[in-house]
């Protein structure tokens, strides 16, 4: 769906730059996700472990899934699905999704998700309310499938993380850590890999900034919640810094969180143009 928000974002950057790519370039592989798409419960989905095979459990943001015989949840597997009802409201600068629950063994949550554009900033706000009778314990993150101007993952990219966040690449990883603490790519990415930055981290604010250094074009994500942990997932055509938030709601409680993405390019004729939101010591 090509919503008005994406049209406004393109216009804000003068139609010169692109950022979002599919998870996979091969039709039929992966989840079909594109760009800044979110997911709940990749590591501990609500209600899976106390569901019997054949019973349902809620995949927040999607619907009720039927548990198979598997002891452990496989987020990439196919499940029988009963979708949640969704209401959509569109405005000139935003789109709002409201998702109602379906009865599921006391696990019920109402989700409101708003995507809004302000100049070169895209905001994704979520509010989750536990309207069931059992606690909700899970997590949420955005995949952030990014390739700036379609450039493949490899040398030329620089990723800077906020203070307290640190990746630990192994000897086989194409990643390197520069003397200033920034993450770089020593070689082109030839296969998928995942590199974690274990948490938790209590600070909120700018979480990461990805720049294609030959052009100076970049994107940064700022969050208003304590970061549970960060994973960097890469494939040959995509770089995906994934920031996780922990969700813990007793019946009747609500939790809200927001992600802001700032898309920027170099200054024009010496004039400031979308300056970095990272603290001075974290800027490239």
Chain oligomer state? single chain
Helix/sheet category: mainly beta
H-E order: HEEEEEEEEEEEEEEEEEE
Low-pLDDT residue spans: 1-12, 275-284
How many strands, what sense, and barrel or not for the largest sheet?
10 strands, antiparallel
What is the overall pLDDT average?
88
What's the architecture in CATH terms? Answer: Distorted Sandwich
Helix segment count?
A: 1
Alpha-carbon Rg, integer: 19 Å
CATH topology: Beta-galactosidase, Chain A, domain 5
Strand-residue fraction? 35-45%
CATH class: Mainly Beta
Q: Describe the global form.
A: globular
Largest sheet: spatial strand order: 5-6-7-8-18-15-14-10-12-11
Q: What is the terminal separation in angstroms?
A: 35 Å
Task: Give a count of the beta strands, DSSP E runs of length 2 or more.
Answer: 18
Helix content class = under 10%
Number of domains: 1
Give me some keywords for this one.
mainly beta, 5-stranded antiparallel sheet, disordered N terminus, 18 strands, 284 residues, single chain, Beta-galactosidase, Chain A, domain 5
Structure description:
This protein has 284 residues and is mainly beta. Helices cover 3% and strands 40% of the residues. It has one helix at 4-12; strands at 38-40, 56-59, 63-66, 81-83, 86-90, 94-99, 109-118, 121-130, 136-142, 157-161, 175-177, 183-185, 193-197, 205-212, 217-223, 229-235, 238-249, 254-264. The chain is globular and about 55 Å long.
């Amino acid at each position: 769906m090509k919503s008005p928000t994406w049209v406004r974002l393109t216009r804000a950057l003068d139609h010169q730059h692109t950022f979002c790519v599919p998870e996979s370039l091969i039709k039929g592989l992966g989840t079909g996700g594109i760009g800044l798409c979110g997911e709940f419960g990749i590591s501990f989905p609500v209600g899976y472990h106390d569901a019997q095979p054949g019973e349902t459990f809620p995949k927040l943001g999607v619907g009720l899934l039927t548990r198979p015989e598997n002891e452990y949840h496989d987020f990439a597997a196919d499940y029988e699905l009963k979708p949640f009802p969704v209401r959509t409201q569109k405005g000139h600068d935003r789109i709002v999704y409201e998702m109602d629950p379906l009865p599921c063994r006391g696990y019920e949550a109402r989700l409101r998700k708003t995507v809004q554009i302000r100049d070169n900033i895209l905001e994704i706000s979520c509010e989750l309310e536990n309207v069931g009778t059992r606690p909700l314990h899970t997590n949420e993150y955005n995949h952030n499938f990014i390739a700036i101007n379609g450039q493949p993952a490899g040398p030329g990219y620089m990723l800077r993380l906020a203070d307290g966040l640190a990746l630990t690449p192994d000897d086989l990883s194409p990643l390197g850590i520069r003397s200033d603490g920034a993450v770089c790519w020593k070689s082109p990415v030839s296969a998928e890999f995942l590199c974690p930055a274990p948490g938790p981290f209590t600070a909120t604010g700018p979480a990461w900034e990805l720049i294609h250094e030959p052009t100076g074009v970049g994107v940064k994500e700022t969050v208003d919640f304590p970061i549970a942990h960060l994973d960097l997932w890469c494939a040959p055509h995509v770089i995906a810094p994934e920031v996780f938030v922990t969700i813990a709601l007793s019946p009747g409680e609500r939790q809200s969180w927001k992600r802001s993405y700032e898309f920027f390019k170099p200054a024009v004729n010496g004039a400031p143009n979308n300056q970095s939101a990272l603290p001075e010591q974290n800027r490239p």
